[in-house]
Amino acid sequence: MTAAAAPKLLFIESLRGLAACQVLLLHYCAAFLPGLVRLPGPTHFAAEGWLSHSPFFLLADGYSAVYLFFVMSGFVLAPSFMGAPQAPPQLVLKRYLRLFLPVLAAFASAVLLMLALPDAKPAALSLSHSGWLDIMGHNPMTWPALLQDGFWNSMLAGYQDASVFSPWPALAGRLALTPVSTAMNSPMWTLHVEFWGSVLLIGVAWAGRRWPAPLFWVGMLGLTWVAGSSHFLLFLAGFLLYRLHGRLQAWRHWTATAAGGLLVAAGLYVCASKQLTWLSACWQVAGHAGLLSADSDFHWQSQCGALMLFCGVLLCAPMRALVVNPLTLWLGRISFSLYLLHFPILLTVGCLVFAWLAPQSYLWGVVASVLLGGGLTLLSATGFERWIDRRAVAIARRWTANQTLSGLK
After folding, report:
1. DSSP 212
2. Which one-letter DSSP state was computed for residue 54?
3. What one-character DSSP code corresponds to residue 38?
4. Is residue 76 within 8 Å of 5, Cβ to Cβ?
5. Model-level pTM greater than 0.90?
6. DSSP secondary structure letter of residue 53
7. Strand, coil or helix: what is 164?
8. CA-CA distance, 232 to 307, in Å (whole number)?
9. What is the CA radius of gyration of the chain?
10. Residue 159, SS3?
């Protein structure tokens, strides 16, 4: 989700930017127009119902966008880990530093925003009556709660309803997990998954370099069984797609373009529908066959749609060219920062703007909130990417380089 794309894979950078915008739109709709993104809550406009079951839904399908991030992470991190000279523990710490420093800075920003505008969300909630908005941002704001959220839950342990340790209740209980509704920045649950997915790939890459091929593929089958239908299957799929991408990119026959186009169309259809019975049956089978499982049929279909989309774009050269342009590349460059900052800005500035304008015009309140909140997010993300994100990458690389030099002495 955060590694830089190689020049020949610029389409991944562009896909990141588009996916980050989908997540932003999902959360603004969830706060003010929940029916538009298939969440429980009042319907403010008659059009919400039919728009939510039309291709328009894809613009705010942040559900699938998050899973697309996981596939792209597996794909982009594969060459980095396979060619790294460092030992797995060094790579894990490097990845932790690279992710956690921006996470901590975004967490601090969220705390400051909530302290500055504590009444913005309640004021917006009194008008939108969104069930999603109601359950978000309930951190008690005590020092113990903030320290636990920022340093423990956000990336390492996760939350009660979003943790890699949830399948083992006894272990999850000992970790003192809190609900995701207590998070200062709720999207951090995905960074928890991202970190542990990266740890999984570090182990896979290490085994790929040292194990005989037959043993490696047996191990991959075992990991696939453990991953089941969970998000970790997407990291493994991205890793395998990278190993195959040379052959896929060399497939220049028109059939590659046709196959890629069909996969993109199928992925868009699955993402827009999320109600396909045959995929539901696959989820039930995978749930019985594997150790881990997707949170629900809805999320499983979002995962499948995201994987189809990525495979289709990877195969189809015209589709890769279509998504790459200066705007999407810029959005891709700041996508990680945008993802980290959009939620606290929504719960404060976005809600404040909505609460000011919605009593006069609900629609203009929503539009103004998206434009001003989204614009502030883009502006903040640009500075955050330059001053925080890039420095986190440099610090992680410098630390790893020093550790490697120390090991050679």
Report:
1. -
2. S
3. T
4. yes
5. yes
6. T
7. coil
8. 12
9. 21
10. strand
- Reported as type and span, the H/E element at residue 25 is helix 10-32
What is the CA angle 79-80-83, rounded to 5?
Answer: 75
Backbone phi, then psi, for 264, in 5-degree steps? -65, -45
Measured N-to-C along each axis, helices 232-250 and 213-227 cross at an angle, to the nearest 10 degrees, of 130
Euclidean distance between CA atoms 127 and 124, whole angstroms = 5
Residues with Cβ within 8 Å of residue 122, at least 6 apart in sequence: none
Please state, in angstroms and as integers, the Cα–Cα distance from residue 213 to each residue in 140, 171, 207, 220, following that order: 52, 34, 9, 10
DSSP structure string for 218-271: HHHHHHHHHHTTSTHHHHHHHHHHHHHHHHHHH--SHHHHHHHHHHHHHHHHHH
Q: By 3-state DSSP, what share of the chain in percent is helix, strand and coil, each rounded to 5?
A: 80, 0, 20
CA 159 to mean position of chain CA atoms: 16
Q: At what angle do helices 335-345 and 88-116 cross, to 10 degrees?
A: 30
Cβ 384 vs Cβ 185: under 8 Å: no
Could you give phi then psi for residue 40, rounded to 5 degrees?
Answer: -65, 145
Closest CA to 231 of 67, 23, 99: 67
| Cα–Cα nearest to 306, from 333, 337, 266 | 266
The Cα 328–Cα 325 span in angstroms is: 6
Place of tokens 């085994």: 207
For 114, other C-beta atoms within 10 Å of its C-beta total 19
- Kindly tell me the sign of the dihedral angle through the C-alpha atoms of 347, 340, 136, 64: positive
User: 92, 93, 73: which is closest to 203 by C-alpha?
Assistant: 92
Go through the chain and tell me how many residues it has.
Answer: 409
Query: CA 243, CA 77: separation in Å to the nearest integer?
Result: 11
Structure tokens at 333: 């460059």
**Residue 103 parent element (H or E):** helix 88-116
Distance CA 78, CA 73 (A): 8
Do 299 and 63 meet the contact criterion of CB atoms below 8 Å apart? yes
Contact 139, 343 (CB under 8 A): no
The continuous run of DSSP H or E covering 200 comes out as helix 188-210
Q: What's the confidence (pLDDT) of residue 4?
A: 41
Block means of pLDDT (10 residues each) for the chain, 409 residues, are: 53 97 98 95 92 95 98 96 92 96 98 98 98 96 96 95 87 90 95 97 96 96 93 97 84 88 97 94 83 91 98 93 96 98 98 98 98 98 98 91 56
Measured distance CA(263)–CA(308) in Å, rounded: 6
Helix, strand, or coil (residue 354): helix
